[in-house]
């Protein structure tokens, strides 16, 4: 599903579907500073191809969340969580495609307590 002819894309760590027709693609980015927005589009395109081939109508497509769990602060603002919808021509659009970046090295706890707990646990493991 991930990667195409002549293209090598590292698969995500997990692809999970829930009972409410949501899909979560999760990738842990340990010390790997990459262009997450470009990587997001690669994962999103692969997931869209997968779901479009199986869908009978556009209402069959799931909400898609690309989640990057990082041990570095991608945007450098210190936030625990960055969230954005899909971007087209520089503008966010609401098309059911989302990206979430979680930062275990946060300084601003701007996420739900459960997420902060997971990030703190990851940070403790990384520091030990």
TrEMBL record:
This is Uncharacterized protein.
